[in-house]
Design goal:
The complex is a heterodimer. By secondary structure, chain A is an all-alpha fold. Chain A has one domain: MetI-like fold. Helices cover 74% and strands 1% of the residues of chain A. Chain A is globular. Chain A starts with a helix and ends in an 11-residue tail after the last helix. By secondary structure, chain B is mainly alpha-helical. Chain B has two domains: 36 residues; 221 residues, MetI-like fold, CATH 1.10.3720. Helix content of chain B is 75%, strand content 1%. Chain B has eleven helices and two strands. Chain B is globular. The chains are: A mainly alpha, B mainly alpha. At the A-B interface, helix 1, helix 4, helix 5, helix 6 and helix 7 of A face helix 1, helix 3, helix 4, helix 5 and helix 6 of B.
Chain lengths: 296, 281
């Protein structure tokens, strides 16, 4: 009797363990089920065209894809130096008491809901952007990048911290013993040794930024246009995520528009899947050199 | 330039960049508190919205978020803790285990709006649950799985191996060891993970857009198959869809949401630091 109960419980635990694979497959399957018809209900030329205007059956996703890329690139460019510097500051420079304040503070940033940041971006940051840059509207790709940079920071900082942490103490001692200053040790030894961690930080930052929805939707102005100009960063754009969130509520279920929105979802799924799969491969490859565990 | 001078300059730049990261965090929280505190009073927290949501309170949105958070907990805790136990205590390093880890990493990376699409496709339409608390909770529950699994697994792995060895050598089975020795020791860590996962779920908007959230409802939900209002969606609605909405009410709503979410964060931090202090290994 006891054996039977134990067997049952262990079977359930095993099932729970396997469930993650099942759920990923299920998610992909249902996105495919609802999104695949888009590929035969409308032509590929239309799908990858330059105009997104669903009312006239124009489903060109190019402006949305480029919009996402622009906002994400802007975010990563801003977040990378900030995140790396903060991670180095926390690990190498900050005294203990300061570290005890900084860590929870960064967790607070991770905890702020994206809709709250979006709201604040809309009512407080956008007017600031408009006045400082003297542009017609503050709801621009740049504003979105700025919000996204801060939203990606907690992930980037914690991954970068782990990477710095995982550099063997011998390397550091060796450098210092050879007469290098603390900064030379950081710049020439610690950071190069932890570079796979830096790569992961960038990739996860991209993954986080490209999938973010509410804050981006609220601050980027939502104009589905192709960013051609050199100053396109300071014009409104529209991202893939914002398009889904804004339009899914209003489309008729089963219409072409509905299927295309799911197809955009498939694209987002595939992109984030690849980014995360590659990032985790980097972890495995860089594995033996360090002891720390980088990801759950 | 001497090495010492360049070190000074480099450290100064690092410090400035860290300040640029940290100060806005404090400013955001303080700004929302200052701007929103005037709108928050007893009526705001306990009354229904009136006059096109411009007056009255936000009770149904608060209740809705609490209900959804509980629903998320019911969905995600058993699966996530089970999966964490499997990975920490049972799984060997095989290709299957590696695929499970890869799947968890990918679940963590799927954009929240894609979870929303999936919830719409499977729970709302295919399973016929409609836009309902059940559909929303299932969607949010799946979304929180990876966070809870990772933190729970870490908590389990932090329990020293020797405790397991002693338990097994005294004749306990594997499950008895897990249930009576490992789990109690890992409980605070698991709890921290659960709260952090739920914190994220409570603040999310995109997954509930098409699965549960209602623009405005004149009464509280009566059954799990009802729609409900929810705080994050309500903030989105009143700040973008309702013209002439008083700014103070918007800030007040943002403040209530922020306080709810950050107090969960605080509880998790307290549990974790208490646990660290008490831990003997």
């Amino acid at each position: 009797m006891k054996q039977r109960r134990e067997f049952l419980i262990e079977t359930l635990i095993r099932l729970a363990g396997f469930s993650a694979i099942f759920f990923v497959a299920l998610i992909f399957l249902f996105l495919l089920r609802e999104g695949a018809p888009a590929f035969w209900e409308t032509s590929l030329g239309n799908l990858f065209g330059q105009r997104w205007y669903p009312n006239e059956d124009l489903f060109g996703t190019l402006p949305l894809i480029l919009g996402s890329l622009l906002v994400t690139a802007g975010a990563v460019v801003m977040a990378l130096p900030l995140g790396l510097a903060t991670a180095v500051f926390i690990r190498e420079l900050a005294p203990n008491w300061l570290r005890e304040i900084l860590k929870p503070l960064i967790e607070v940033l991770a905890g702020i809901p994206s809709v709250v940041l979006g709201f604040l971006g809309m009512v407080a940051i956008a007017p600031l952007v408009r006045e400082t840059l003297n542009v017609p509207t503050g709801l621009t790709a740049f504003t979105g990048s700025l919000m996204l940079a801060y939203m990606a920071l907690p992930t980037m900082i914690s991954v970068a911290e782990d990477a710095i942490d995982a550099v063997p103490k011998d390397y550091r001692d060796g450098a210092l013993a050879l007469g290098a200053t603390h900064w030379q040790t950081i710049w020439r030894v610690v950071l190069p040794a932890g570079r796979s961690g830096v790569i992961i930080a960038v990739m996860l930052g991209i993954g986080r930024a490209i999938g973010e929805t509410m804050a981006v939707m609220m601050v980027t102005g939502n104009a589905a246009r192709i960013p051609r100009e050199w100053y396109a960063l300071f014009l409104p754009v529209r991202t893939m995520t914002a398009t889904i969130a804004a339009e899914m509520g209003e489309v008729a279920q089963g219409s072409t528009h509905y299927h295309v929105l799911f197809a955009v979802g498939i694209l987002l799924f595939v992109v984030t899947f690849l980014i995360n799969a590659i990032a985790s491969l980097v972890v495995i490859r860089g594995g033996p050199r360090r002891g720390g565990r980088l990801m759950g | 330039m001497s090495r010492q001078a360049s070190e000074k300059i480099a450290f100064a730049i690092l410090t400035i960049l860290a300040v640029v990261v940290v100060v806005p965090i404090v400013l955001v929280v303080v700004y929302i508190v200052v701007q929103g505190i005037g709108a928050v009073n007893w009526e705001f927290l306990t009354a229904f919205p009136r006059n096109g949501m411009k007056e009255g309170g936000i009770l149904p949105a608060i209740i809705g978020t609490v209900v959804l958070t509980f629903g998320t907990a019911i969905v995600s805790i058993p699966i996530a803790v089970g999966a964490a136990i499997y990975l920490a205590e049972y799984a060997r390093d095989t290709w299957l285990t590696r695929s499970i880890r890869l799947a968890i990493i990918n679940l963590a990376g799927i954009p929240s709006v894609v979870y929303g699409l999936f919830g719409l496709g499977l729970f709302v339409l295919f399973m016929g649950l409609g836009t309902s608390i059940v559909a929303g909770s299932l969607t949010l529950g799946l979304m929180t799985l990876p966070v809870v699994i990772s933190t729970a697994e870490e908590a389990l792995l932090a329990v020293p191996q020797r405790i397991r060895v002693v338990s097994r050598s005294l004749g306990a089975t594997r499950w008895q060891t897990v249930r009576q020795v490992v789990l109690p020791n890992a409980l605070p860590g698991i709890l921290t993970g659960v709260i952090l996962g739920l914190e994220r779920a409570a603040g999310e908007t995109a997954p509930i857009l098409f699965t549960v959230a209602a623009f405005y409802l004149p009464q509280l939900p009566r059954s799990p198959l009802d729609q409900t209002m929810a705080l994050p969606y309500h903030l989105y609605v009143i700040s973008t869809q309702v013209p002439g909405m008083p700014l103070e009410v918007q800030y007040g709503t943002a403040l209530v949401l922020l306080v709810m979410v950050l107090s969960m964060n605080l509880v998790a931090t307290i549990i974790r630091s208490r646990f660290r202090r008490r831990r003997q290994w």
